[in-house]
Amino acid sequence: MDKGDWAIIVHGGAKAISAAETAAHRAGCARAVEAGAEILARGGSAVDAARRAVVILEDDPTFNAGQGSVTNAAGDIEMDAGIMDGATLAIGAVGAVNRIANPIEAAAAMLETPPILLVGKGAERFAYKLGLHCTPPRPTLPKIGVSGHDTVGCVARDRAGHIAAATSTGGISGTVPGRIGDAPLPGCGFYADDAIGGVSLSGEGEAIARTLLGARVVRAMEDKPAAEAVQDIHAPMQRLSAEAGVIAIDAAGRVGAAHNSENFAFAIASSDRADIIAAIHQDELKADILND
Ligand code: GLY
């Protein structure tokens, strides 16, 4: 990828996707990646593209984030989100929030503040001051054919070579109130550094955090392309008998995606591809597409 080129990859969660839900997952990821690609193509920043793509995924009830969030054991929605600017290493994240329509917007606003993570009422108060406060998303009925964990995310590289990563989730269905997973924890559910690359993850948050899974893939991108580095999720997840999926873009703009879950919805766009690729399994992609 040459200087001035851009790339973006989004995911809609590592999980089982029923035949009835396949089209919605492909279409939702394609819509999100297209919106981010439009920003990157006109010279916008990786942070803006990643934030916009995740807002679209949060607004799509197909996915477990924002409006599509699952409920915890008390019947409440508690959402987590995090975003990182690989140019400055600024981080913004919120945890266990309810009265915010798009948690990724609150996380992005925190890129400008000294704290990197606010939770619960403190995060909601922060969002209120910005006008992001709202009535909570309405709990939806349990989703048929979808396992109890998934997340959305995006990694983008802009024309200036800056990389951003963003992740947002409604957490795990039926979990204990107050539980926070990997999504708002840097090095776990997301990370970005222009010098190396960026990642966004989905899967069992506790296992992802215990193994610092995001950091492992970033560390691997110091030595190998994104498409190879993402394979480093398999051994730690096997050790803990856990499921995860990851998307990545390395400093050279190469993309990668891997998962050990039954499915993983994702979509890719870049300045050197004619069409958007939207998939629900890594095997849909030819090795040469991910190894470019
Ligand atoms: N990966 C989402 C969560 O565990 O909360």
Give a verbal description of the structure.
This protein has 292 residues and is of the alpha+beta class. It has a domain at 7-68 and 146-284: (Glycosyl)asparaginase (Glutamine Phosphoribosylpyrophosphate, subunit 1, domain 1, 4-Layer Sandwich). The chain is built from 9 helices and 12 strands. An 8-stranded mixed beta sheet has the order 4-3-2-6-5-1-11-12, covered by helices on one side. A hairpin with a 4-residue loop joins strand 9 (244-250) and strand 10. Helix 1 runs antiparallel to helix 2. The longest helix is centred in the N-terminal third of the chain and has 23 residues, at 19-41. It is globular, with a radius of gyration of 17 Å. Residues 141-147 have low confidence and may be disordered. The structure holds glycine. Glycine is lined by residues 149, 151, 169, 171-172, 181-183, 202-205. Residues 149, 151, 169, 171-172, 181-183, 202-205 line the site of glycine.
Question: Helical content, roughly?
Answer: 25-40%
Output mean pLDDT.
Answer: 92
Strand content is 25-35%
At the fourth level of CATH, the homologous superfamily of the domain at 7-68 and 146-284 is: (Glycosyl)asparaginase
How would you describe this structure in keywords?
about 290 residues, alpha+beta, 8-stranded mixed beta sheet, 4-stranded antiparallel beta sheet
